[in-house]
Amino acid sequence: MAYLNKKDYLYTENDPQASKEDTLSLLDRVTEQNELLKNIKKEFPLNEDLNIGGTKLAINVFHEIDNKKYDYNLSLNNLENINFKRVATGKNNYRIVFSVVSEEDKKTLIPNVETIYDAKKKLLDLLLEINKFSDFMLKNDKRKELVDELASLSKDSDINNKIFNFRFISSKDGDNEFLRSVVTQSRYKTYDNPIILYISLILIHNLSKDIDKDFYLNSMHVSDSKLNASFLEKSGTKIDEGIIVTTGLIVSNSELGDGAAKFNAVYKVENKDGKKVTVMRDELATINHGNNPDTIKAKLKGLGNLEQNRKDTILAVKEIKWSKEVTEKDVLKLMTLISHVRNIPSKLKDSMTKSIDQIDLTKQAYNVLEIFDKLDGFLEKEDPDITLILESRFNKWLTKF
So which domain of life are we looking at (predicted)? Predict the structure, then answer.
């Protein structure tokens, strides 16, 4: 998915740690939610500088995502001049365009808005349950009839008074306004990227102190609407001759209402030749965007077991025969597993299977880690959402070896 604004941070050795002020500056990004901020600071206090490498620069990168974001609680009655605009690229051929007006005097609040991401589907399905119908009409050149139908529905009081939370965003230059999501008003609370990153930093900071191990922020991919961050311990554990495993935590979040904030255990296996693979393991905690801070804190108690999970992970990783020579049967099995993965581009699957297929096992003895290093290499510049899908699959596939 192409975002309006996207930044990446990758750790370099000796990147500095964030100060207390740096870390609290994340919460300064959250506006009009004073009660929520008060609860977050109470449940996840910070009274000192962080002891997580890389966090200072990562927070600086995070602040570079500076698009204006704002929400309105609206109904169909607040939308005027609804129409459909064909776009040249992207999975969806059409965007909805409209204006936002006030309820009482119909004063224009936002003159020209376009849907991006999956906002077209969410708007039409939440308000009217007609997204598939709209696709059918547009495909069959019935745009005028569709627009007329929407105008008629907007006059129905049983339909137009249902209120939802509309999530808007401005382009970086401020010249364009977009609707990025529509979510249920009664359940959704905006635990947006700044809050989730702040919570993550506090959790890793406290864990580091509790178990006396140093961690660093290995990578962060942040956009105007999504966040993926990976934390790893600095010193690993030897599990075989020349093979080291390091454990950590992956955090992911979406502001689009299409998923919860998730905290997953992760481990990286690397040998002395630089062959490596990063693997996502257990889901430790989930924050749904309707939870209050007390509920979140209860859910995050699962992260208190991170040290035990770390020990269990190391034991499990030791069971994998990393130095085992891969046979032709293993290669065919892996190709089949790749071909059955859903929700990733077919072009990527084809490239991965082709790469595996071209391995000549008769000329060189490949082991398990070398094979998975090839797959891991495909993910270096891939969409973080795709990376998460495949890294979780790696864990299942490795158990077959």
Answer: Bacteria
